[in-house]
Amino acid sequence: MTRSHAPAAHPCPLWRRLAALVYDLLAVVAIVMVVGLLCQLATGGQVVAAGTHPAIAWWYQPLQGLVVGAYFVISWLRGGQTLGMRPWRLRLVTADGGKLRPGQALRRVVVAALPLLLLGLAPWLGLRGAVWAVLIGWAVWFAPALFDPRRRTLHDVAAATELRQIG
Fold first, then answer.
1. Do 115 and 141 form a contact (C-beta atoms < 8 A)?
2. pLDDT at 6
3. CB neighbours (10 Å) of residue 54?
4. Global confidence as pTM
5. Cα–Cα nearest to 105, from 141, 150, 158, 64
6. Which of these, 39, 58, 71, 85, has the minimum number of CB atoms within 10 Å of its CB?
């Protein structure tokens, strides 16, 4: 949208943002499943090597991350909305209400994904503990939206973006 549309938009409340994120989670699961299937077909079922210690190919998880990240970046650049944001009437814009630039979208997706690095703690915390660490990390990332007048999260602040309720 153009800047002339910005005054009609309101900052997005945290609950709406999280509801849209649940919708997007469904899209992400579908993307991960399709990429997994294509990788299994391309490698003859060797992405996950069976044996006494099952192992995932070194390139598989980075590939999944790139494809999921591309989903978000492309969605934000093509109209400021992901599939989950559309039914909740939300749009991602720059701080002045304009369209995102590629660098902003990329910065936003990278910063939003940083808590996933906490999964690396699994050898010490166990898988359950590492998943809890990621969830706590994301809670910290989203907490600023509770206090910020423009309802920005940490990744919004890092990328100079805002999620606005439209219509």
1. yes
2. 44
3. 8
4. 0.89
5. 158
6. 58
* One-letter identity of residue 100: L
Q: Torsion angle of alpha carbons 46, 48, 51, 52, nearest 10°?
A: 160
Q: Cα separations (Å) of 9 from 12, 64, 89, 148, 165?
A: 9, 34, 10, 16, 6
Tell which phi-psi region holds residue 129, choosing left (phi > 0), alpha (psi between -120 and 50) or beta. Answer: alpha
pLDDT band at 37 (very low <50, low <70, confident <90, very high): very high
Determine contact, residues 76/105, Cβ cutoff 8 Å. Answer: yes
**Residues above pLDDT 70, as percent of the chain:** 95
The amino acid sitting at 49 is A
* pLDDT digit string, tens, across residues 59-72: 999 999 999 999 99
* 163 phi and psi angles, rounded to 5 deg: -100, 120
Residue 154 has pLDDT above 80, yes or no: yes
User: Residue 33: which H helix or E strand, with range?
Assistant: helix 14-42
Other residues' Cβ atoms within 10 Å of the Cβ of residue 51: 6
How many Å apart are CA 10 and CA 122, to the nearest integer? Answer: 40
Report the Cα 104 to chain-centroid distance in Å: 14
